[in-house]
Every structure is written in C-alpha cells, then in structure tokens.
Design goal:
eight-stranded parallel beta barrel, alpha/beta, 310 residues
Length: 310
Amino acid sequence: MSEAPYNEKPDLSVQIAGITFKNPVIAASGTFGYGQEYAGLMDVSRLGGICTKGLTLHPREGNRGRRLHETPSGLMNSIGLENPGIPAFIESELPAMLDLGPVIIANLSGSTIEEYQEGARLLSATKIDMIELNISCPNVKAGGMAFGLCPADAASVVQAVRRVSDKPLIVKLSPNAPDLVGVALACVDAGADALSLVNTFKALAFDIRRRKPLFDHVTAGLSGPAIKPLALRMVWDVCAAVQVPVIGMGGIASTEDALEFFMAGASAIQVGTATFPRPSTMIEIIEGLETYLRAERISHLSELSLQGRI
C-alpha cells in the first residue's frame, strides 16, 4: 500500500522578540541597500525581513580607495559604513521601505556610546520594527567592532541603547571576538532580545606588484561561501549558550546552506553576499525551504534544530 501524500502546508513563519516574520529569510545589512534597489529584479515583498545599510548618527563617506576584492569562494569589502546619516534615512529612505511589506530592521552603528544612544532614540520614534545593533563592523577605525570584541564593552553599548529604546533589539556579533560566547551572554544579560551572527571575518590581501596592501584601510571584511563552516560552528556554539533567538548568517547561498543553520539552532537567517551575483537567491531559498519541509513531512522549521540532540 502506497504512503498517502503529505498535503500539510509547512509553516515558514517565525517570531523573534514578538515580531512575526512571514518566513525566516532576511536580507543582510549592507548588501540590499534599502530594498528599493532590488525591486526591479525580484519580488521584495516575499522576503521575511530587510536590514538597512549600516546607519550612523551622522553621514559617512566611507573608506577611500578600493572597496571590494573577490577571493576564492569569497568577497572582501572595505566600505566603511557609507550612509547618509540617520536623520536623512528617516526622511528620505524609510517611507518607501515601510511600503515594501517585509519586517524592517534598522542596522545601527556608531563610534561612541553617545552616538549609538542618539541614533537609537531617533530610530525608536519611527515605525521600524526592530533595531539591529552593529557592534561588529571590521571596516571602521573607531567604534564598531571595537565594542564587539570584549564582553564588558559589548554590554555597555547594549545597556545604553536599551535605556533609550523599547524597540526589539538584535545585537550583531563579530566572529573576531576572542570569546564570542562570552560576548553573546553579556549582550543578553544587558538586554538584547535576539542575536545575529556572524559579521565578516577580518582579512588581508596584498597587491604584489605595488607591494602594498590592496585596501587603503589595510584589512577588510571577508564574506561569502568561504566562511560558512566557521560561521555555522559559531552559531552552533552561541545557540547552545543563550536562551534568545539567534539569526544565523555567513556564506549562505542555497537552501542547503540555510537548512544547516536551522539545524545549528538558528531561528532565522540573513543572506548577503550571494545576492550580488544572483539576486533571486533569497526567493529560491524561501521556495526551497517549503519544498524540503513538505518532502520531509516537517510542519515547522523549529523541528530542524539539533540543539540538545547531539
């Protein structure tokens, strides 16, 4: 007797800090602009969420010189948080973002705790759904990653932002932290509602003909498939240690990649570098997840986690 067909529609929705995402696929900060840039290439409304470019209180021109360099299975970038500043974002970019449909997450960065606080205060007065606190950018000389390397420093920024904002707060962690789990626990203790990881790995490349570093800033952030096994292990470690939702990222370019992060314990994922060569990547992952769950007779993504089973 043949097995009856499985007709139950898989549930791709997820809840993170009280916010409902229709699916767990989020456009990563710095790779998707403000959403409108991709509207002619894909149906942006199908995404679960969109993270803005990294926003700072004041406008930033970004780093000089070369900003991108392809490596085997990866991409190095040294953008330097180029952005128009939070007031200009709120006035010029946010209204159109809010009409797109997905959950809107503002990625907030800064060079001082005071800048983080004032930026959070301004963003909290808008209709954004969540703030992603970026304490992990490797491409700026002041602030950014410096706050994400030490548990005490990370906690100080989270506490400061938590005091001025009641928006759900995601903290984006750096893979370059010597004690990543320690930083994660400190952020949760300080008031983080969720964590996202990993940001790019600090990396180096040389111009052998000029005999100089390829980037004016010397080092740059490495992303892409090359970092996925490392990112996956870090997500696994953090998910085992914390009791808040974790959003996994780092080299995700296919449904199979995404499934591994859910097995590691992630509640949602972000896709970044893969969108550049193939803008349809995130839509393909959404469709692939539904196909996989149906084929495996799994009703919800949460059933995939292997945390506590190994």
